[in-house]
Design a protein that fits this description.
The chain is mainly α and 428 residues long. The chain has helices at residues 9-18, 29-32, 36-67, 70-81, 83-97, 100-123, 129-157, 163-192, 194-214, 235-242, 244-260, 263-274, 281-301, 309-329, 333-361, 364-389, 393-413, 417-423.
Length: 428
């Protein structure tokens, strides 16, 4: 029988006293890492995400090298993440209704096989553009069906008191993988082209599979006695509409992703045409952005662990708007690297705070379906914005980024701490 994550709370305190450790604060990253199963899943997904970001970042530069087309860059980015917009609710439903371990392991293995297939196509002398699009889209579908399940098991690995640290650490690992993956991928791509990058990514899925098999966590959501309407695909939407805090978080993230985050997908075009960067250097620019994002997520889980996440949202949006505008206007490479780091920092302070607010507002039996909406907003809406912006990015990237900055300021205006607390947001 699986033990409850919360049941180890007293054991954690006793361990700290017996080992002579300084008493740790609940809700910090250090507290989250004291839980064995969280550590296992964390390590497995971290290793796998390094490979994923090797592929994701190099794929954009590879697409631009093959076609010199902003539309093709946007199309592949949409293939990677666009399925999140359409299939995340189905993935959330599966996460709440089927064996989560079998679902997640199967989908991770499938993505590994497909990534190796992408490597084989890239190794040919004349890679098929159609085959690349179809394989990338298939990987995106598998990711969309599995992502809600990965988000849903996170709160079962730590007690509620350590949720802030766990959410921050997951954000840190995702963004550190954005640093390590692109840095490695850029070097491999510059020396050996794209095929080896995709093959290495294929192998890293085995780390995620190992973690998911080894860790102990509830394999079902234990929601069998829920209301009969709960089996319906759109039940997550009904849950969100009924709770003003959940509704605020999701609507903010949907619009933020669409208007303000298109720069993530068109960054290869910005690096090539605005900054005149050579092959492989773009990956280092993206790695700098990822380093800033990791620092932002880490800050929320450490220095800001005891600060109200509700109070951090507004200044986070303002800082992001300033950094995004500067990134759109800069034409100097050293300055672009500095600004990219600051942009990543502000970006993930906002996202980590919103994620923490949402996770604390949810019950376990509804978590999979509502986190599917989060993933749709966070991952699925961005590629839609990139797909629209891609054809115009060569000539109008500055205007695209300035529009995104202006919308972030609009969101800052409607993100006051007092109004969020009145909606019922947890002020911790």
């Amino acid at each position: 029988m699986l033990s409850s994550p919360g049941g180890s709370e007293l054991e954690d305190v006793e361990d700290a006293l017996v080992d002579g450790d300084v008493a740790y604060q609940r809700g910090t990253a250090a507290a989250a890492l004291r839980h064995r199963d969280f550590r296992i899943v964390y390590a497995g997904t971290f290793s796998s995400n390094v490979g994923t970001w090797m592929q994701n970042v190099i794929l954009g530069e590879y697409a631009l090298q093959l076609t010199h087309s902003g539309f093709f860059v946007g199309l592949l980015f949409f293939g990677q993440l666009g399925p999140l917009l359409f299939l995340s609710m189905m993935g959330g439903l599966l996460a709440d209704r089927v064996d989560r371990r079998r679902l997640l392991v199967s989908l991770q293995l499938l993505q590994g096989v497909l990534s190796f297939g992408l490597a084989l196509v890239a190794w040919t002398s004349h890679p098929s553009h159609l085959a690349i699009v179809l394989i990338v889209f298939a990987i995106g579908v598998a990711n969309a069906l599995g992502a809600p399940g990965l988000s849903a098991i996170l709160p079962t690995l730590v007690p509620r008191e350590d949720m802030t640290g766990a959410v921050a650490l997951m954000s840190v690992q995702m963004n550190l993988s954005r640093v390590i993956g692109p840095a490695i991928g850029g070097l491999v791509f510059a020396k050996l082209e794209a095929g080896p990058v995709f093959a290495i990514n294929s192998a890293t899925y085995l780390f995620a599979v190992t973690g998911l098999v080894w860790a102990r966590y509830p394999r079902y959501a234990n929601a069998r006695g829920a209301d009969h309407t709960e089996h319906r695909l759109l039940s997550g939407v009904r849950i969100a509409r009924a709770d003003p805090v959940i509704r605020y978080v999701l609507l903010s993230l949907f619009t933020f992703s669409f208007f303000s985050l298109a720069f993530v997908g068109i960054m290869p075009i910005i690096a090539t045409y605005n900054l005149d960067m050579s092959k492989g250097v773009y990956a280092l620019l993206y790695a700098t952005f990822g380093f800033g994002a990791a620092a932002g997520a880490f800050t929320v889980g450490t220095f800001f662990a005891r600060r109200s996440k509700v109070a951090l949202v507004r200044p986070g949006f303002v800082a992001f708007a300033v950094a995004l505008a500067a990134f759109g206007l800069v034409r100097n490479n050293p300055a672009a690297f500095v600004i990219a780091g600051l942009l990543g920092y502000a970006y993930f302070v906002v996202v980590t705070c919103l994620s923490t607010i949402l996770q604390k507002q949810l019950r376990n039996e509804e978590r999979g379906r509502v986190m599917a909406l989060w993933i749709m907003a966070f991952g699925g809406t961005v590629p839609l914005g990139v797909l629209i912006a891609g054809p115009f990015a060569k000539a109008h990237s500055t205007q695209i980024l300035l529009i995104g900055a202006a919308w972030a300021l609009v969101l800052a205006l409607r993100s006051g701490g007092r109004s969020l607390r009145e909606k019922g947001a947890p002020d911790d």
